[in-house]
NADH kinase pos5
Amino acid sequence: MDVRLVLLAKLEFVTHFPSTTSASRQKPLSQLAANIFSFVNYLSYIMRPWIRSLRTVDARRVTQRCFSSSRPRLELRSIWDLDNKIDPVYRECTNRSLEIIKFPEDQPPNNVLLIQKEGVPSVTEAMVEFAKYLKTAYPATNIILEPHIATELHSSLPFPIHATPYTTLPPYPNRNPYHLKTSLTVTFGGDGTILHAASLFSTSPVVPPLLSFSLGTLGFLGPWKFSDYRAAITAVFTNKARIMRRSRIKMEAFSGSTQLLGDLWPPDSQSNGGRGEGSGVWAMNEVNIHRGQNPHMAIVEVFVDGRFLTEAVADGIILSTPTGSTAYSLSSFGSIVHPRVPAILLTPICPRSLSFRPLVLPAEVEVSLKLSDKARGDEVEVSIDGKRWGGVRKGVEVKITGEMGNFCGGGEGGVPCIWREGSEHEDEWVGGLNGLLKFNYPFGEEPSSRVFSNIDGLEEKLPCKSTKRDL
């Protein structure tokens, strides 16, 4: 309040109401109350212009804050608001093991799904940096995140983020939204992150291109360094990227003539182009049938193309792809198979028989597994790429088939993994076998002077050191 207004009010009060004397004190109380009420009314009258000016200033400040100094409103939108994905085509390049991925000239990838390894702040920072660059370089691109990641990060990104809603029902309840909307998948993490991304398309015969940055523990499947992310994105959006397909295997379970569905996404029957194929679940690494919590060994009957092969008494059976031959199957002493070899690997888990050796079967065969009536337990567990599919009881038949043929140009089959620039062949697999898995390293000494391709794709010659140990 202005001091001058207060002094003016006191002056006016003295003018209208003389100082209290002993005579005025004898006035009735009603007259004194009337005088105080008159003074308050007069004070509010002379202060009215000042109060009106304060309201005008406050309104001006609110207007400026809303339209000039506030941050842009950050949004979390539903994935169903996006247009359907733009599919690329694949053309065979000079190296027949790789293909060139091409999007329409005026239609680059419109919806990009980002998958990160959780619980690592450095990985989160890398994904945020990547997303900001992608939106800056290609503003028309839409970013898709998993729901829990989108809830945490959308406030730190200055553009809308799309995710699968938690509460609202989708327009197609039996359709996986990632199958309809994703043009490109980018992972930030290790091999487990890549498997998680592939599992989002485990009920679809078509998988979008997969760009993987090695930010995890091992990184055997991720050929790209994160420092090269700008070159990777440029290669994809300018149709210069190359891919190598990693074949998958398909698992179906039947109880009589009824096909069983597991705990993963529902079957996406419309994504197979109306070819009438049965629904199933695809695995990038392996299908694992194991005894679960049952303390007794499982007894599983194994058939190949309908012919009885053996009755396995073991903790379980692993049916893996060539890509999965360096995963759980390798830990169970399975064979190592190059990812371009069309095959199905059958590996026992802790078998009771010493003569039960791993098998490598052609990809076109059908492997059937049944829980024997001799088994003590009534059920075995089925896991697909580390995710629980469900339980299989006696009388249920599990069928495993592989992906067949040359995928070039078809756009279907396998997981199309974007290859690192500068690598002319599939030698990344050889380098990873030596540098990461330490293939055939002798005990008690350093590796000899051999040239390996390390995870970054650079060649380094390891020093020739030999350490002799006294026996």
